[in-house]
Amino acid sequence: MTKSAQPIFPHGPKKVEGYHEYLADQLQPVGSLLNPEEYKQNQDPPALFKPLTIRGVEFPNRAWVAPMCQYSSEDGKASDHHLVHLGSMAMRGWGSIMVEATAVVPEGRITPEDMGLWEDAQIAPLKRVVDYVHGLRGIIGIQLAHAGRKASTPAPWTLRQVIEDEGYQGGTVVGEENGGWPNNVQAPSAISFNEGKFPNPVEASAEYIENLKKAFLEAVERCEKIGFDFIEIHGAHGYLLHEFVDPISNKRTDSYGGSLENRLRLPLELAQLIREKWDKPLFYRLSATDWLEEDLGPEKSANGDYAWWGIEQTTILTQKLADLGVDLIDVSSGGNDLRQKVKVGPSYQLPFAEHVKQHVKNILVGSVGIITEPEQANDIIEQGKSDVVFLAREVLRNIDFPLKAALELGAAVSPAVQYERAWTRMLVKRDHVKEAAHKHGLTEVQGEEGKKIKGETVTVNGNGNSNTIGKRGPPPVVHSSVP
Ligand SMILES: Cc1cc2nc3c(=O)[nH]c(=O)nc-3n(C[C@H](O)[C@H](O)[C@H](O)COP(=O)(O)O)c2cc1C
């Protein structure tokens, strides 16, 4: 008996060219809308899944990851931790990923374990992360930062551990013996954030400020080499640039202190210098308010002076940043004064973003702060209150938020090719627009997912390919050192 010729499949896999090893091509960005001709529910998609293009960079959706310090670097370098942490976000369909606050000078770190970009040796480890995210067709930027008077302090868990273990109640300044720089903590004025606990900063000299501008520009050059898609300047949370704009922490008598114009000088100079050098998207994160009304009365005193930093000055700063060509304002709040009374709750910072959006027309606006639900996120954008939403803690709890949101809002977006089989419920082709999956009577056990409840062998889509699932071998051997 002669056998017929084998039915050879005449194609190889699509791979990411130029990547240092085999990496499957994602075919289209993870989290981007699937073809609306096929998935008719995408013809009028939820606002959260409408792509956004800024200076030629296409963000596939509006659910963006906020910057989150990991305190997991040695000498400011990205590590395996960052590859997994940020890489797994790229596998989950976030519209944008942002590397944590990254110091442009060593003394601009919050903790000795912060990420940094003050020297060329820090380029390659970050590029590895960025190359991987780009290999997955993801968008990734970085937040450039200086911690100001909150520098040289310990990571939260380092502090908590000694508080829990030893009932420690002392100061929280990291000394030189643990990699800190207690005598080189820089601020606009020599005013501690928390006298007796936090560092006693020195007043940054005019020379320090000039060198800082150079350091920012050098970091921007490194961002260029790494291939980041965007840069965010960190001007929030009581760190250096917030300290400069805020009359609470800035008591300088030179051209960087006193009047509002002077207090805004440093962030505006930086934004301008960076804008001239960097032609990709540029964002600025600010704290819209110190939340001090209850303690100090109105932001502007009766005599016309500003008593603390609030939404009026925020709006003025945003307008000036917009006029300099900053593309997006990321509206956060608080962090510069211990007396702050933050009114926390779902979307608690949205009113500030909305205010800025209403008053400054030539800038995109991002909102952040307890945005955890798909409908909540979608409504914010659909109602024009901001253009994108940033999520932080929800990313850590629920990394699949974008795809789950698509499912809940009734859109069909591209899952990572390797994870497709987990998203069959979302990938149902529907005629209806914005109909949530549950309205179609789909349940967890339908489709392919239903078949794997008992058996270990399933037939996928009736195409003859048999896949074994459920059988698991022993755990892999992990070699703790590279041979
Ligand atoms: C672990 C962690 C680290 C953070 N690190 C940064 C940071 O590097 N830069 C920054 O601007 N905000 C940082 N934040 C604040 C978040 O970006 C975000 O503004 C805040 O958590 C509120 O959003 P959420 O309610 O979605 O968590 C951090 C928050 C968390 C939870």
UniProtKB/TrEMBL annotation:
Q: Does the keyword Flavoprotein apply?
A: yes
Basic and acidic residues: compositionally biased ranges: 442-455
Q: Does the keyword NADP apply?
A: yes
Q: Which cofactor does it need?
A: FMN
The name of this protein is Oxidoreductase
The organism's superkingdom is given as Eukaryota
Q: Where is this region: Disordered?
A: 442-483
- Biological classification of the source: Eukaryota, Fungi, Dikarya, Basidiomycota, Agaricomycotina
Low complexity bias locations: 456-470
Q: Where is the NADH:flavin oxidoreductase/NADH oxidase N-terminal domain?
A: 48-406
Q: Cross-referenced InterPro entries, in alphabetical order?
A: Aldolase_TIM (IPR013785), OxRdtase_FMN_N (IPR001155), YqjM-like (IPR044152)
Gene3D superfamilies with a match to the protein in the record: Aldolase class I (3.20.20.70)
Gene Ontology molecular functions: FMN binding; NADP binding; NADPH dehydrogenase activity
